[in-house]
Amino acid sequence: MSKREMRLSPRHQNIIELVNEQGYVTIEELSEHFAVTPQTLRRDLNHLSTQQLLRRVHGGAGRVESSTTNQPYSSRQAHNAEAKQRIAQQVAANIPNDCSLFINIGTSTEMVARALMNHTGLEIITNNLNVAAILQPKEDFTVIVAGGTVRSHDGGIIGEATIDFINQFKVDYGIIGISGIDDEDGALLEYDYQEVRVAQAIIHNSRRRLLVADSSKFGRRALVRQGNITQLDAIYTNELPNQTLVDLMESHDVTLHVIT
User: Fold this and answer.
1) Which of 58, 124, 243, 248 has the fewest Cβ atoms within 10 Å of its own Cβ atom?
2) What is the dotted CATH code of the domain comprising 3-62?
């Protein structure tokens, strides 16, 4: 425990422990856990954020993270899993049968792949080996896997060959995930430059671009700029982002789906 943490009240220390353990907690969860008002928790989180002991995000707080290194794949799979599942089900409900899709790298997009298993006649192009494995058993699906370099830690496929492959197609829907969304200008942020270039190709070659992002992605820092929310057609999340982003989406006709 650092000297700063040793000077904190027991509740503040417990808040930091919960945030570090879970990765992200909501104000409602903390309010119920500590039996104090949401207003008190907001003050607590703001105070701890100014000391850089946690990361204040809309509706809650997350652990302090590096802007250059992502969390391990297993941690990202478990984080906000229930919210990701609800988001994925709503995305799938808005995808028709007999259409074509890109599905890129990410634990949220893998949830979407699972939610699409009751569809028929889909043609899916992916640079995610986990997505391909999920969809492979469906006999009426055509699953096309992009060539390129496979990342050992998450099954993502990246590189120049991947970009060239993606650029051969024009599909109905591009389903993308993201590591972070800047809560001031709506920049879409990632950690890997090569992954960003593949995602940009997917955005460019999709007629409709759908972003799946649980609420912990809002305000999360990452090093590489992938694009901007204004390039999207719809965003699916589980909490309303801040008013700056809401206004930005409205001014660029980006549909916001909040699945609670």
Assistant:
1) 243
2) 1.10.10.10
